[in-house]
Amino acid sequence: MRCDVLAVGTELLLGQIVDTNSAWLGEQLAANGIDSLVQVKIGDNRRRIANQLTAMLAEADAVIVCGGLGPTHDDVTREAIADVMGATLERDEAVAAVILEMFTSRGRRMAQNNLRQADVPVGAALIAQTRGTAPGLICPVRVGEAEKLVFAVPGVPHEMREMFERAVLPELRRRSDAGSMIVSRVLRTWGESESGLNERLDGVIAELDALGNPTLAFLASGWDGLKIRLTAKAESEAACEVLLDEWEGRVRDVVGELVFGVDDDSMESVVLDMLRTKSLTLGLAESVTGGLVAARLTDIPGASDVLRGSIVSYATEVKQQLLDVPEGPVVSEEAALAMARGASKVLGSDVAMALTGVAGPTEQDGMPVGTLCVAIVWQEGELTRTFRLPGQRQQMRQFSVINSLDLLRRTLSG
Amino acid sequence: MRCDVLAVGTELLLGQIVDTNSAWLGEQLAANGIDSLVQVKIGDNRRRIANQLTAMLAEADAVIVCGGLGPTHDDVTREAIADVMGATLERDEAVAAVILEMFTSRGRRMAQNNLRQADVPVGAALIAQTRGTAPGLICPVRVGEAEKLVFAVPGVPHEMREMFERAVLPELRRRSDAGSMIVSRVLRTWGESESGLNERLDGVIAELDALGNPTLAFLASGWDGLKIRLTAKAESEAACEVLLDEWEGRVRDVVGELVFGVDDDSMESVVLDMLRTKSLTLGLAESVTGGLVAARLTDIPGASDVLRGSIVSYATEVKQQLLDVPEGPVVSEEAALAMARGASKVLGSDVAMALTGVAGPTEQDGMPVGTLCVAIVWQEGELTRTFRLPGQRQQMRQFSVINSLDLLRRTLSG
Q1: Does A315 touch chain B (CB under 8 A)?
Q2: What does R_g of chain A's alpha carbons equal in angstroms?
Q3: Given CB atoms, is B209 within the 8 Å cutoff of chain A?
Q4: How far apart are CA B222 and CA B330, in angstroms?
Q5: Residue B404, CA distances (Å) to A56, B266, B285, B329, B409 in order
Q6: Would you tell me how many other CB atoms lie within 10 Å of the CB of residue A94?
Q7: Mean pLDDT of A88-104
Q8: Which residues of chain B have pLDDT under 70?
C-alpha cells in the first residue's frame, strides 16, 4: 500500500508557512506499514492541482490532499478533485445546516462564502467536521482497472490530524494488505559528528547492509543532536520490537555513552526525569537564553514537580541586586557561579544552574559572539564550564540550552 | 523562469525532520521574480531521485536539489544527478585535498567515506564549499532543445542558504529574462477569524479580482495570527511598491485596527519598539508560560534596551516569597496583579506584566485548562484581564504569549 501526500497552498511555495502536515502524515503512515514515497507542495491553482493529482495517482494507491478546503475564494481543492473524478459539485444541505448552526449558536452572523464548504463532488463520501467548519472528503478515482482514493483534509494541523486518525487511517488500513508492520526506533545522541558516528558504527552498518533488515540511518537534527534511526520490518509489531532490541544493543555497545534518550525522549524530559527520580528540585538563572531553558523545560507536562522557577536576569543590575553577582564582567565563569548560587538561594532549590553568554550580534565584555558560561551548584559541589558555540543568535541560544542541559545530565549521573 | 525544488531524504518522508529548506527557497525565488510551482520531497533512493528529477525538468527550467550530498552510505544525490546527465562520477583531487586539510588542521583523523564528497559528475561545475565539507554542483541537462540546470546543495539549512546566495541565485538571475519583479507585502493581524476578514474585505477582493494585480490571500499562522498577503507584479521593485502602498491603504481603511505589523514585524518586535520609543523598561512575572514570553522577546536583537528580566515563578512558594503574592488561589486576576506589582518592584521596571493560568493537562484551583489571567501595571494605572484559550499545552502557552503581548500593545498605544 502506498499513500502519497499533496499539500496545497501558494503560501507554502512562497515560504510564508512551512508545511509540517506532510511530515506528520509520513510518520503516521510509516508506523502503520504504509509507504509514502513522494510528498508534493503545490499552489492554489485548480488546473495544476488536478494535473499533479492525476500524476500522483498513476504511481500511488491513494493520495492525501491537505488544505484548500476553506471558505475563501482561493480555496479550490474541492473543484480540482471533482475535475479528476470527472464529477460535478453539489451542495450538501445537511452540512450547510451544521455550518449555519455553528455560527448561530455562537451568536455570530455567517458570511455566505462559508457555505462553499458544503459543496461535495458527486460520488464522494464525507468525513464529518467536528472542529472547524469544512468536512473532509473520501473520493474514489478509477485509474485503469484500479479504484484509487483521494482523501481531502483541512490544512490546519489539529483539524487534519483529528480527521486522519478518525477516518483516513481506518480506511487505508482496511484497504491495505496489512501484511507487514514497519517500526522505527530512534536513539538520541549528543556530542559526536555525523561522519564520526558513521565511522564508529562502520562494522554494525556493514552487517545490517548484508542483512537488509533492520535498516540504519543518521538524522541530523541541529540543536537537538544527531539521531540514529533503526527501522525494522516484520509480520507483527512484537517481531519488529525483538529485532530493534537486538540492534539497539549492538549500537549501544559502540556509542552508548553518547545516547541520552530513545524515541520521544528529549534532553529536557530526560533531565526532568533524573531530577524527579532523585527527588531534587531545580532553580535556574538565565541571561543569554532569556528564559528559553525554563520555557523548554515547562513545555513538558509535570515539570512543576521539579522546577522551582528561573530568574531571567537580563539587565546587569538585576544580576547584581537580585542574585548578588559582584561588579565586573557578567560574561564569565565567576559571574555564572554567582548567578547559580543566587538562584539556589532566591528560589530555594536543591540544584541550580546559571547561563550567561554572548548571543550577538556584537561581542560583550571582550568575549566573542558564541561564548557560553555555565555554572551548576548542588549539594555535592559546584562546577563551571565555558563553551564556544557556532551560529547566529537563535542557533547560539538553542545550542546553549542543549549544551547546558547535557552538562547537567552528566553531572547528575555522576 | 521557473525553478522547482526537490528535497532529498528518507527522514523527511518519515517525518523525523521537517523540510524547511524548500519554503525558504520559495521565498527567495519569489522575491527575485522566479516562479517555484512544485516542491517535492523524496527518499534516499537513486532510481527514484533520478526519475523525479527527469519529470520535474520536463516542466521547470531549473531544479534545486537539497540534501543527499553528505559522506554516509545513504547519500546518493550525486549518483542520481549523474544518471540524469548520462555522465559518470570522477573524483576531484583538489576538493579531496581541501576535505583532508579540513580534518588535519583540526587535528582530527579523516574517515575515508568523507572523500565521496569530492566525486563530481563529468560536465558539472563546482560550487566551492566554505562551511561543511561537501561542495555544491551546477549540472547542465539537455531536455529536447533546451539546456536546463540542476543545482545540488547541502541539506543543512545554513550551508544551503549560503551556497544559494553565493552561487545559485546569481546563475538563475543571469539566465532569467529578469523582465518582471514580484514583490509581496504581508499585513499581520490579530483578533479576527479568516472568514470574518474575508467578508469584511469582500469589496476590496472583488476589485482586485477584476484587476488581477496585485493579488490578495489570507494566511492562517495559528498562534501568530492571520496574515493578509498582497502580491504585486511589475517591471521594477519600485513599481511593485507603488501598487502595494495603494492597496495596503485600501485594506487598512477596512480592517486597520486589527493590523499590528507589516512583513517581518512580529508581535514581539512591535511591543519592544513601542516601549523603546517611549523610553520605558519592561519586567515580567511568568507562571503558566514558564519563561516563554521572555524567551520570545529576547530572540529579538536589542531586547536588552527594554527588558529588565522575568521572574519565572513556577512554584507557588516562589510567587509568595519573591513576588509577595498573598496566600490563596494562584490562578486569578488578583494573583496576576500581585505578581505584576512584585515584578515591577524586584526588577525595577517602568512597566510590568504578569501571566498565570492553566496549561493542563488538568485543571488547577478550580479553573479549567485554557484559563489565562494577565495583569499589567504601569505609571498610569493597572489592569487585569482573563482569557479562555483553546488548545493543548503547547498551543495554550503560545496563545498566552501573543494575547498578553497584544494586550500590552493596546495598553501602550492608549
Answers
A1: yes
A2: 27
A3: yes
A4: 28
A5: 45, 14, 12, 20, 9
A6: 10
A7: 91
A8: 131-132, 177-179
